């Protein structure tokens, strides 16, 4: 088996690489990434890419078809990955997250790839009231990021069939420790605040609902999507990926962190503009289709791992929301240094084919 993982050098990628290497020890696993966040290692025991056979460096907007030669499964993680980045780079978000996703899927089908796994998002449900959203619920995307996921799912559906299986995993909000940690995620932000300052400052009134999933459980779901039979959901499947128990209001998450990290005070902003991104999600379909790949990490375990991980990093930055642990800050820094242009392309590699590093070269780097 040969597996291609795009966007493997982000927050979720290291856990996916580790999981797939363990599950498929004989597989050839290839990474493809722009490497914006390659230096953002956070207390990693080993370079995550050392578990790959090959690391390719390139832009998904211009990925050549030959990258897909001999590939059996594509795990497509590459994306402009959150709302602040999507707001600043809206056109690029649609280009990277939507148009490139469809182009790669078309090339993958033409190359004989049998399984295409797309990292979608529950954020496409947007503002919603009442019952938890199912896969048949009305979509109400409120941001460029969410709109890009809706558009991609829509155009992936007609590509499925004739031996090309497409799985869109509508992930809950990611959380948990990673070899490339992000703090621009609600639970991670709260733990960072508790560790650095002893305070959690909720920017909203604390009432919005969020479903969460740990990054290791995201990897578990991706493994299932690669190996699932078409009888488990059909040749095209869009499924909420997470678990019902992990639907929380934001203030509940803050209180859970304060319980694990004694001495933490929690404040809300009662005058905040209401956060319309509030939704509960129903994960019954995923539970019925993937009973052996259900989320395993508890909220308490996730908080404890983040606490321990940040403590081991000697993390003390009370101004972390302006640090390089926020993905938008990384892109801003790269632009300020003249390393990437306004289209987020590397100045030093324009018009070049992807560079390659073999596993042996990574291990000796």
CATH topology: Rossmann fold
Query: Total number of helical segments?
Result: 11
CATH architecture: 3-Layer(aba) Sandwich
Compressed to H and E, one letter per element, the order equals EHEEEHHEHEEHEEHEEHEHHHEH
CATH class, please? Alpha Beta
* Share of residues in helices: 25-40%
Mean pLDDT over the residues: 93
Keywords:
single chain; 365 residues; alpha/beta; Rossmann fold; 8-stranded mixed beta sheet; 3-stranded mixed beta sheet; 11 helices
Short précis:
The chain has helices spanning 13-23, 83-88, 90-111, 144-156, 186-197, 215-227, 250-260, 284-289, 299-312, 327-336, 359-364, and strands spanning 2-6, 28-33, 54-57, 73-76, 115-121, 165-171, 173-175, 199-201, 209-214, 236-241, 247-249, 265-267, 355-358.
